[in-house]
Design a protein that fits this description.
about 120 residues, 2 domains, alpha+beta, 4-stranded antiparallel beta sheet
């Protein structure tokens, strides 16, 4: 299980506060601290073949991160500046457009239905 312990140690190193808060930098008297949302997960297992007695094990790990904004420090005041996630904005806009078209279609069907 040495390989599993090494993989677990690597996962702990990968998901750390350094991945969430980037290195601060200063520009024009303003300190910028980038912030990201980081998620990860992993799994592993092992077993023995009943017929041959062969042993096997395996594992895996995955991680994802996305920027969420920056802390901006200027003249001793800290402000939060959120990042614009254009992918989410576009997906939400498309969803709203589809729902709008479906509602419009239903209204037109009701309006055109014969009244009797």
């Amino acid at each position: 299980m040495k390989a599993f312990d090494e993989a677990l140690a690597g996962a702990k190193e990968t998901i750390s506060v350094r991945r969430v808060f980037g290195e601060p930098y200063e520009e024009d008297g303003v300190t910028i601290i980038p912030v990201a949302a980081v998620r990860g997960g992993g799994g592993g297992g092992g077993g023995v073949d009943k017929d041959t007695g062969d042993e096997g094990s395996g594992g895996g790990f995955g991680m994802t991160g996305r920027p969420v904004g920056v802390y901006q420090i200027k003249d001793g005041e800290t402000t939060w500046v959120p990042a614009a996630d254009t992918t989410r904005v576009i997906m939400f806009s498309q969803l709203v457009a589809i729902v709008g078209l479906l509602v419009l279609r239903s209204i037109v069907k009701i309006w055109r239905a014969p009244r009797g």
